[in-house]
Amino acid sequence: MQEVAVILVSSVLINNYVLVQFLGLCPFMGVSKKLESAIGMSAATTFVLTLTAMASHIVNKMLLIPLELEYLRTISFILVIAAVVQFTKMFIEKTSPLLYRVLGVFLPLITTNCAVLGVALQNSSKDLNFMQASFYGFGAGAGFSLVLILFSAMRERLAAADIPQPFEGAAIAMITAGLMSLAFMGFSGLV
Amino acid sequence: MLDMVIQQPILAALIALVSLGLVFGALLGFAAEKFKVDGDPVIDQIDELLPQTQCGQCGFPGCRPYAESIASGDAINKCPPGGQATINAIASLLDVPAPDLDEEHGQESEVKTVAYIREDECIGCTKCIQACPVDAILGAAKLMHTVIVDECTGCDLCVEPCPVDCIDMLPVEQDISQWQWSAPQTPDGLIATDGMNSPNLAGQDNPEPNREDAA
Question: Which of A31, A78, A127, A169 has the fewest beta carbons closer than 10 A?
Answer without folding.
Answer: A127
